[in-house]
Backbone:
């Protein structure tokens, strides 16, 4: 899925798959514009090719308007038709535009279509689009530097505890071994030796989770993490990953 999403970032890209009993390779076009939502960060290959819109959880007492298909979809269809009617006569103009971008590399490739639309609209929109582009890309760069993987670390630790039959605690050494061994996760690729205890501690500090002395099954004591320290963060940031019972703290 990640490969298809990454290759579908631009027109003319494809993936190769074998078809039929004779396993003949065929190319399949993958370009598709998509809106993808999730809890925590999506895979890096998807995030790098996306305009990322960070959403916040609703605070206590904060109200939002509900989306109702019967009421709201007709209005959205009307808006879609108006945008299409405006855009169709401008396709040739859009194809030859080479806008000045406030960012570079893949971020510029991702944002260029939106900036082109803003340039075609005119007025204040070209300036606002470039301001939004620069600020939103800067936020993602800072987030990657300060907190490389957001809630991903919580979800992966949840999977480790689940695989270990909901152990009361895991030593830091054992937890890191499982995280770095996960071929689907980014941790083993960090530096020469993968994710370190210091990096792990720094990531979890944002969720008020800290290592301490834990008693192991062989009755020895080692530095590690208690399962019950993760329960609140798991419920808030990765509630769909082996859900934890809110009352008992059990899966």
Residues:
């Amino acid at each position: 899925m990640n490969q298809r999403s990454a290759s579908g970032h631009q027109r003319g890209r494809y993936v190769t798959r074998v078809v039929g009993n004779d396993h003949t390779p065929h190319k399949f076009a993958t370009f598709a514009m998509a809106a993808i939502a999730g809890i925590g960060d999506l895979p890096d290959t998807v995030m790098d090719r996306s305009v990322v819109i960070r959403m916040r959880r609703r605070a206590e007492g904060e109200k939002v308007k509900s989306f109702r298909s019967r009421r709201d979809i007709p209005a959205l269809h009307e808006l879609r038709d108006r945008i299409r009617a405006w855009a169709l006569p401008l396709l040739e103009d859009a194809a030859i535009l080479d806008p000045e971008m406030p960012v570079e590399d893949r971020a510029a490739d991702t944002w260029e279509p939106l900036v082109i639309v803003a340039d075609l609209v005119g007025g204040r929109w070209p300036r606002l689009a470039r301001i939004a582009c620069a600020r939103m890309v800067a936020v993602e760069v800072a987030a990657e530097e300060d907190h490389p993987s957001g809630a991903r670390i919580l979800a992966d630790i949840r999977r480790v505890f689940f695989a270990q039959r909901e152990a009361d605690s895991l030593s830091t050494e054992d937890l890191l071994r499982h995280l770095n061994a996960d071929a689907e996760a980014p941790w083993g690729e960090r530096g020469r030796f993968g994710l370190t205890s210091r990096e792990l501690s720094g990531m979890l500090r944002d969720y008020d989770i800290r290592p301490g002395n834990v008693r192991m099954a062989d009755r020895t004591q080692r530095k590690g993490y208690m399962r019950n320290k993760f329960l609140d963060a798991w419920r808030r940031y990765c509630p769909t990953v082996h859900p934890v019972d809110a009352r008992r703290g059990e899966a």
In short: The radius of gyration is 23 Å. The chain has three domains: 2-47, 81-146, 152-237.
